Amino acid sequence: MRFTHADEVFTYFESFANLARLTHYTNRAYRLDRMQALNDHFNYPDRAFSSIHLAGSKGKGSTATFIRSALSASGCRTGLYLSPHVADYRERYTVDGEFIQDDILVETANSMVSHLEGFSFPDEQGYEKPTTFELLTLYAFLLFKAVGCLWVVVETGLGGRLDATNVISPELTVITPIELEHTAVLGDTVEQIAREKGGIIKQGIPLVLGYQSASAAAVLRGIAAERSAEVVSLEESVTALTSHTEHAGEQCSIDWGDSTTCLLLRMRGSFQCENAALALVCMQTLGFEINERVLAAVADSVLPGRMEMISDNPRIYVDGAHTERSISKLFASFRQLYPDDGILIFGAVEGKDHVSMARHALRNFGRIIISTPGYFKKSDPRSLYELFVKLDADAGGACRISFEPEPARAVELAMKEISASGESSAERAIITAGSFYMAAEIRAAYSRLKTAGSPPRQ
Questions:
Q1: pLDDT tens sequence across 151-201
Q2: Which residues of 17-40 are buried (b: 16+ CB within 10 A; e: fewer)?
């Protein structure tokens, strides 16, 4: 098999067993020794660069992006491996903020597939062939080696302990805030999830912690102590964080005690101030200088699906918030822009804390449309709609909730309601939340509507 286009590469990878679709751990499915064997077969391409490894429930993609920007601004050719993507698989593999050229994507994939001929895992290691995520991760290592990266920032796919990315030997590990998520896979308590995420902590390698609950922090610090890993925490590094969401971005102030850093981040949301501060702590821990060039690069960082405005009239924002804390912070930031009203399009996959997210949604919106977050992961939008209706009734029934399973029709319905109300974009807007998959669906649906010329205009 030979590829001629990058899209063919990702279609091929998707033809393998995709554990992202599973809702539980099995010994056959999740085994780190599989990725270790695969890495060995390719002579450890991850050893060609220094790396930083991130895990967490929310904020790790943005934090990873801020770190990548800071490293690039420091003169280091830096790769970034993220998951999931929002619109294009190429989002998962960038170098200094740019997509890798298609000819390199194709050439590397052809070499990789050729070297995989005849390779298989023994029966005791589970599936005979690599899984989709194992291939995507190996591909990342090979790509970043091929383009000569000095540093690579690596985000875990799910969990940490058994995640395919956990074969790397990083210079630094980072754990962003931990909440209840993927409960069917990682455990149904914060402590259990922290143990899985804490599996990326390495012997003698410094660990940087984002804000954590007391229970999660205790677990993570315990693992770090067992592995003689120095712990640097955001909580102990900064005196205060303040931010305000504006249409232009996020006004962010980081008080270090003896100095203050002020930034206007292009990525909106109060949580981005926290993520940017965490990234700067990581750079300090690694011994890099935090100069004006680095700060400018951090401020200019962008990532799809992070309170991203995809339409100006009417204003439509998409965000991948899918935990109670991230949903709460997202809605608070949205209210700073639109204090009186808004329409929420919501969709979430299974394994999330639906009840907590629904309660926050019902407190913040008088109009909610429940839709389908694609079909990549299992979801039950009808049951989610019924949950919202029940919780709303229990609270007095103040919200108008509807179920529109097709994302394109959901966004079109929301846009028509905004248009019919006669309100301007400065008064009322649409926001999508609950899953990156939901954000991707609405983003794609709006793009199709815009191309077809059907979005109603004011």
A1: 999 999 988 999 999 999 999 999 999 986 655 567 669 999 999 999 999
A2: bebeebeebeeebbbeebbebbbe
